[in-house]
Write a structure and sequence with these properties.
With 116 residues, this protein is an all-beta fold. The chain is built from no helices and eleven strands. The strands form two sheets. Strands 2, 4, 5, 6, 9, 10 and 11 form a seven-stranded mixed β-sheet that branches. A hairpin with a 4-residue loop joins β7 and β8. The radius of gyration is 14 Å and the shape is globular. The termini are far apart.
Length: 116
């Protein structure tokens, strides 16, 4: 079993920055990709940023140039640096891990609130 624990969410003013962290633990044998998703009430969860085991990254158009995903393999930790935050970035952010066997895992989520 894999556990993902997010941290780093909070309240920030528009234009500010936050860094989210996701610590992975448990039976981590082989990872296909990890990523960050977000969800607001009444809407579907959407992909924000993703990084493959080979280091390839991709981002939602809405966050390109503002958010940066990175990963510390030695610490089994995933990060999301969010700059120039906008009120529309307000959401619950979830960490996701896709294993080689295509089984996926989710964290419990962390709230990010951007005030105008």
């Amino acid at each position: 079993q894999v556990q993902l624990v997010e941290s780093g969410g909070g309240l920030v003013q528009a234009g500010g920055s936050l860094r989210l962290s996701c610590a992975a633990s448990g039976s981590i044998f082989s990872i296909r990709s990890m990523g960050w998703y977000r969800q607001v009430p009444g809407k579907q969860r959407e992909m924000v940023a993703r990084i493959t085991s080979g280091g390839t990254t991709n981002y939602a158009d809405s966050v390109k140039g503002r958010f940066t995903i990175s990963r510390d393999n030695a610490k089994n930790t995933l990060y999301l640096l969010m700059n120039s935050l906008k009120p529309e970035d307000t959401a619950v952010y979830y960490c996701h891990l896709l294993a080689r066997n295509y089984r996926d895992y989710w964290g419990q989520g962390t709230q990010v609130t951007v005030s105008s």
